[in-house]
Amino acid sequence: MGDELTALDGGAQAELIRTRQISPVDLVSAYLARIESWDGLLRAWITVDADRALAAARAAEAEIAAGRYRGPLHGIPYGVKDQMHALGFPTTLATKVLDPEEMVAPCNAAVIERLEAAGAILLGKQNLHEFGKGGTIGFAYGQPRNPWNPAYSASSSSTGSGIAPSARMCTFSLGEDTGGSIRGPAALNGVVGLRPTYGRVSRFGAVMEAYTTDTLGPLARTVADAARVLEAIAGHDPRDPLTSTRPVDAYAAGLDRPIRGRRLAVVREIAWGNGTTDEVKQVFAAALDVLRGLGAQIEEVSLPLALYAVPLQLLSTDADVAAYFVGKYLRERYDRFDVGTRTRLAASSLIPATVYNRAMRARAIVRGQILDATRGFDALVCPTMIRATRPIEQEQEKVESSDEAVVRLMERRIGVYPFSLANVPAVSVPMGFSAEGLPLALQFAARPFGEAGLLNVAHAYERAAGWWRHLPELETTLASAAA
């Protein structure tokens, strides 16, 4: 019964809870059992509090039995990237840099407050690259592994938040996306990942180092699940002065609208560029055929400046992150950082203010080109990642020459960085598998605060393509890993 429950998407689970065919206790217990069975291999979690989750599930069961059902997230279990504060849990940030007293959570993050109000049940905190910034080589809380093949990378930063819903250890996760840290883990682990518009979701109570780019958003099995979570966590929060006062749309309500006649633009430089593998191009072309079959009008758009998004974001956002750490920890605790993290931070801390200023000005020009494109189409479309994931050792950011550095920086980032730099919403959706059986993904991006239309298009593709029904078989995965 437990594995059958965790194989359901969040909407199906919610209906069983609403009609009292199952209890939230059943669902929490099923996920805890899978965490116990598989997390020793996959390392998606840093901290799990089973007693707390079961107590919350019993409280939800009693509330629902008394007729106080709060909605489709009531009794639904989730996890968060360990970059968000949650009272009763340490905020480790997956690092050895912090002392225990520095990990004590001072509050609940705003997103956790809102999910608690919706009745969702927090299982625990999920693994990530050190401080959530990518490039980690030695993980303080264990090497995260891809549930489709544990020898392969589960992507960067919000790794545990992508692994956990894919491996059916929770219904959804919350991740953080600076340059692709929601969409990358979603893509490589075969789930949906949504980066909302900058300012759509409060960042209060999360450790956010890249002030001009960081966002929080959901990772889940389906677009509908992500839409329901976004609806719960979005909205103005005076504690985060950069949150928008725009009303929150009913994202889930509009998902089933037909997309016939919608104008979708393929981003030529990402979809058909020299760095995009033939395998990805072939699977992407098949995804476009699905969209045409739904009545969408497929056009192409050229965004030549988007290629500069990678160096420009590294020059600006990485400098923002380094500024956060130089005065706090980098000077006094340099040796306690992972070598990959400290190398990146040290290099970024040396970026001159004049270069940072020019990069920020150039970012505005590149953003302008991307915004112009989003205004002209219902959504932009491209592969999320221009190649399939590789074995963990090959994905570590070790380079032997400047030419190799450029290639590796571009191939891992060109699909996602342009939309981060432009601070527009973007969603990654499964679109098939590589020859090795590893997930590939399609990405849609839209104009600022265009999440309702974006999710509608993504949902239509997801339902027609059907890739969301494919789940990693962990018993087979483990047997293959042992062999």
- Largest sheet: spatial strand order: 1-3-2-4-6-5-10-11-9-7-8
The helical percent reads 40-55%
CATH topology: Amidase signature (AS) enzymes
**How big a fraction of the residues is strand?**
5-15%
Tell me the total number of β-strands.
Answer: 11
Class from secondary-structure proportions:
alpha/beta
Oligomeric organization of the protein chains: single chain
* Overall tally of domains: 1
Q: What would CATH call the homologous superfamily?
A: Amidase signature (AS) domain
Mean pLDDT: 95
- Major beta-sheet overview: 11 strands, mixed
User: What distance separates the N and C termini?
Assistant: 29 Å
Uncertain runs are: none
| Helix and strand sequence | HHHEHEHEHEHEEHEHHEHHHEHHHEEHH
User: Helix segment count?
Assistant: 18
Gyration radius, in Å: 21 Å
Top keywords for this entry?
single chain; 483 residues; alpha/beta; Amidase signature (AS) enzymes; eleven-stranded mixed beta sheet; 11 strands
Give an overview of the whole structure.
- By secondary structure, the chain is an alpha/beta fold.
- The protein has one domain: Amidase signature (AS) domain (Amidase signature (AS) enzymes, Alpha-Beta Complex).
- Helix content is 42%, strand content 13%.
- It has an 11-stranded mixed beta sheet with strand order 1-3-2-4-6-5-10-11-9-7-8, sandwiched between helices.
- β10 (426-433) and β11 (439-445) form a beta hairpin.
- The longest helix is centred in the last third of the chain and has 24 residues, at 353-376.
